[in-house]
Design a protein that fits this description.
With 321 residues, the protein is of the alpha/beta class. The protein contains eight helices and nine strands. It has one domain: Rossmann fold, CATH 3.40.50. A seven-stranded mixed β-sheet has the order 1-9-8-7-2-6-3. The chain is globular and about 65 Å long.
C-alpha cells in the first residue's frame, strides 16, 4: 500500500496515549492535493440529505482523501489475499472489502455513505461498489409490536441481526447474489416479499445506527466482525438534536404530506407543535439510543469524522495501524 504522509503537527496531545491519530481538517485535506476531483457540483448536490449543507469543497477536502485512503486499504487487502492464496496453493477470488458506517439519527451518515459509494467506484481497482442500509433488516412493525418493542425501533434489539449477519457473510464469501429486504420510509415498514439484490461487489458499504455493535454472549459473532474498515460520524448531542428538529420540520412540509405516509398525522401541525413532537421523539427515543448504544461504539471505528455545528467535518481521528 502506498505510504500516505501525515502532518504530525496536526496530531494533538502527542503525549496522550491513544489508538487514534487526530488530524485537523487542513492537514487531512492536504493528503489528497494530487488526487483528481471526480464529482461535479450537480452530483454533490444529489447526495445531500435534508439540512445537510454539503458542497464541492467539503467533498474535496474531507471525502476525497478518505476515498483515496480506503482504496489503498482495499488494494492492499487484495494483494495480501493473492499472496496468501499463492502460499496455500489454492487460488480463490478475493473477498469483497466491507465498510461499515455508523452514527446517530440525523448526523449525516447516509450522505457520507452515498458520497463514498460514488467516490470509491471511480478508483480503478474498485469499480463495483454497493451500498445497503440496515433499515431493511429491521423487524416488520407487526413483529416489533408482538415483541412489545415497537417504541424501541432503531435500538439494537429491533433488528434481525442474524439475517444481517447472514447477508454480509454471503457477500463476504463471494456469493453471486445476496438479497436485502426492502424498507419503505414512506410507510415506515418492511415491504413484504420485496428485495434489492447485491451482485458480488468489489466494495460493500453497510450503513446503519448500530452496525458497530460488539459481539455478546447471545450474539457471539457481530456484523462488525466482518468489516474491513469502519467509519463513525460524530457530533455534539445538542447539534444533532437541532439537526433532527430541522429535518423533522422539513419532512412535515414535504414527505409527511403524502396521504400514504405513516407520519401524515404530523403534516398539519403548527411549527411550535412540530418542534414539541420532535423534542419528544429525540428525548424518548433517539437520544437514549445514541447514549446507550450508538456512541459507545465510536471507539471501535477505524476512523471518526467529527462534525461541528455547521455540519462540516473539522477533525478526523484515524486508528493507528
Amino acid at each position: 500500500m502506498p505510504h500516505v504522509p501525515v502532518d504530525t503537527r496536526a496530531i494533538t496531545r502527542p503525549d496522550v496515549l491513544s489508538p487514534f491519530l487526530e488530524i485537523d481538517r487542513a492537514a487531512w485535506a492536504a493528503l489528497a492535493d494530487d488526487t483528481p476531483m471526480p464529482l461535479t457540483e450537480d452530483e454533490v448536490r444529489s447526495f445531500r440529505g435534508l439540512g445537510d449543507p454539503l458542497d464541492l469543497a467539503e467533498v474535496g477536502e474531507v471525502y476525497r482523501p478518505l476515498s483515496r485512503m480506503i482504496a489503498q486499504y482495499a488494494t492492499s487487502q487484495r494483494q495480501l489475499h493473492e499472496r496468501t492464496s499463492a502460499f496455500l496453493q489454492r487460488p480463490t477470488p478475493p473477498s469483497p472489502f466491507v465498510i461499515g458506517i455508523a452514527g446517530s439519527v440525523a448526523v449525516g451518515k447516509s450522505t457520507v455513505a452515498r458520497i463514498m459509494r460514488d467516490l470509491l467506484a471511480r478508483w480503478e481497482d474498485t469499480p463495483n461498489v454497493e451500498l445497503i442500509t440496515t433499515d431493511g433488516f429491521l423487524f416488520p412493525n407487526r413483529e416489533l409490536e408482538r415483541r412489545g418493542i415497537a417504541h424501541r425501533k432503531g435500538f439494537p434489539e429491533s433488528y434481525d441481526r442474524r439475517a444481517l449477519l447472514r447477508f454480509v457473510s454471503q457477500v463476504k464469501s463471494g456469493a453471486p447474489e445476496s438479497y436485502v429486504p426492502k424498507y419503505s420510509h414512506l410507510i415506515y415498514d418492511i415491504l413484504p416479499d420485496e428485495f434489492d439484490v447485491v451482485h458480488r461487489p468489489d466494495i460493500l458499504i453497510v450503513e446503519g445506527l448500530n452496525v458497530l455493535q460488539p459481539p455478546s454472549l447471545r450474539h457471539p459473532l457481530a456484523v462488525s466482525d466482518l468489516f474491513d474498515f469502519s467509519i463513525y460520524v460524530d457530533a455534539r448531542s445538542a447539534d444533532i438534536e437541532r439537526w433532527f428538529t430541522e429535518r423533522f420540520l422539513k419532512l412535515k412540509d414535504g414527505a409527511f404530506s403524502d396521504p400514504n405516509s405513516y407520519f401524515k398525522r404530523f403534516a398539519g401541525l403548527t411549527e411550535d407543535e412540530a418542534r414539541a413532537v420532535a423534542a419528544e421523539f429525540w428525548q424518548n427515543i433517539n437520544e437514549p439510543n445514541l447514549v446507550e448504544n450508538i456512541r459507545p461504539t465510536r471507539a471501535r471505528a477505524s476512523l471518526v469524522l467529527r462534525k461541528e455545528a455547521d455540519h462540516r467535518v473539522q477533525k478526523v481521528l484515524l486508528r493507528k495501524l
